[in-house]
Amino acid sequence: MKTLLWGVLPYLAFVLLVAGTVWRYRYDKFGWTTRSSQVYESKLLNIASPMFHYGILFVLVGHLVGLFLPESWTEKAGVSEHTYHLFSLYGGTAAGVLLVVGILLLLYRRRTNTPVFRATTANDKLMYLVLFAAIVLGMVAKLTHSSGDGYNYRESIAPWARSLFTLQPDIDRMTGVPLLYEIHAVVGMVLFALVPFTRLVHMFSAPLQYLFRPYVVYRSRDPKRLGARPERRGWERTGS
User: Contact, 91 vs 99, CB < 8 A?
Assistant: First the structure.
């Protein structure tokens, strides 16, 4: 079981992530979408969607830093383990709460808005369930082991995660890892395997160019600069 969970499952999830994404792109380009339901309801969506997206971005960045930034690097930078633990605890909890609230609002919207609910597939329900479980389990694991310096996963889970890239998984590193962290890791790998088969696949086509494109220049409509607008004609006229 130990070898299966920490030596086989990670690669299986990775293969499903890559192969599933390629398959989805080749054979389901029209389905490569978030299947936006904004046309049905936008007021609550405008609140929940930013919370969800910013929350999941902060959570992802936190995991990348925690797993792939070696402890020795932060120590050389003068960041003690206690300081890192507090930053991880409060920052991670805040990001997790933001994401959980966003998910709950999205679920509430889907359940209470009939057109949105009808557009919800079984695939969507599974995605929300696994994503919600992964986030909550991570928060519970962190808060359960929050006393003192907490559980230092950078001495166990992080080296194991980095060893996967060498194709020589150090599964012994996972010995003694608290059960909640183990379950969180397994659910996280399942979530990655599900990405290509859910609406989460749109993350690979996020319009990042919008962050770097030039500003869109608009001309002023100030009558003093452009002159008075000519009188409207025909159907353009407003009622008197």
Answer: no
